[in-house]
């Protein structure tokens, strides 16, 4: 999932530099959502509620 976050951030940066604000915003929003999911899963693992095997 971290790979997808990095890809989306690169796409957002490239689209922003090329003058495509809609694509940049969509990619940044996707990255932001994935970062939130990763943080929630990380917190659940740290609290012992969710086990990763």
Number of domains: 1
Helical run tally: 2
Low-confidence stretches: none
What is the CA-atom radius of gyration, in angstroms? 14 Å
Order of helices and strands: HH
Query: How helical, in percent, are the residues?
Result: over 70%
Secondary structure category? mainly alpha
Q: Got a strand count?
A: 0
| Spatial separation of the terminal alpha carbons | 17 Å
Share of residues in strands: under 5%
Q: Average pLDDT across residues?
A: 91
Q: Major β-sheet, in short?
A: none
**Outline:** elongated
Subcellular location: Cell membrane
Transmembrane segments: 34-52
Protein name: UPF0391 membrane protein HNQ71_002248
Membrane topology: Single-pass membrane protein
């Amino acid at each position: 999932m971290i790979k997808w976050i990095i890809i989306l951030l690169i796409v957002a940066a490239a689209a922003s530099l090329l003058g495509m604000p809609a694509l940049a915003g969509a990619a940044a929003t996707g990255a932001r959502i994935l970062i939130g999911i990763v943080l929630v899963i990380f917190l659940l693992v740290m609290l012992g509620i969710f086990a990763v095997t």
